[in-house]
Fold these 3 entries.
Entry 1:
Amino acid sequence: MFARRFTIVCLLTALFGMGFAILVAEHKRPGGDWDLAGLRCGIACSSSFAAD
């Protein structure tokens, strides 16, 4: 009886985990502005270090 309940709980947990993983994987992050900010910072930082 205990083994049957344990198996059911494990299967439900696995299904919930896989469903949650699908939701997380499909969620897209807004990242367009961060890419441009990194590029600008890299240009500004490299030019300021080159002046030294």
Entry 2:
Amino acid sequence: MTADAVIQKKRLTVMIAITAACFVLAGVAIFGAVSLKIDWLLPVFFLALVGGLGSQIWFILGWMRAAKREGGASS
């Protein structure tokens, strides 16, 4: 396995962990905000969404950078 593949595997694992944590946090926050009427949980819900989406964007940008390096090295 190449060094880039090892790095990408670690990035994937981190991205999945962050996305799963944000998913759970967002679910709890929206439940508390809507059902229990705890108003301060609504911003927590949106921050959890941004965090999960951000981790996925971080992974994709790293993947694109690795693909660009790989393509440039073989040309």
Entry 3:
Amino acid sequence: MNITLGLYPQFSSVTTLEELTLQLCRKVLEIQNNPDLNLTNERVITITENITEEIATINLTELEGTIVNGTISIKDYYNFDFTPGTGVYPYDRETLLDALFHVLAYQHKQELVIAKNPGSKMCCDFSIESVTEMSTSQQLLISCSLTDYPITINGNTRTSKPYLN
């Protein structure tokens, strides 16, 4: 699904929603693996690729979220200087993990629209649980996954295959 260039300035060359999702995931993984940016050693994302079938599986587990003015906001775990988005929802988020969560939620919404998803491909899945501990600042535990996410592998380069219109 085509998107306007530069909605998230650090991903300014991305032209599709599917590629933006993949690039956000890769950036989270890169930061997660960098001890200078992941000071508390938070492990929230895994990415595995099946080179033969050209698909990826991405799992985000137990993201901590709060509800702020009716919108889910994801805790910022990392010491990363993220440039906020410049567009309207979901391209207006201010932290990397929050941007990824909302782009995934938006992508899932597009998967449910027949005209936008003529192949009926469903990659996105979510689990949101209430936190039951009193006096916790985080009200939700959120897990997201992308299963059988279509990618193109060209040598060392991996890009997403658009599947939404």
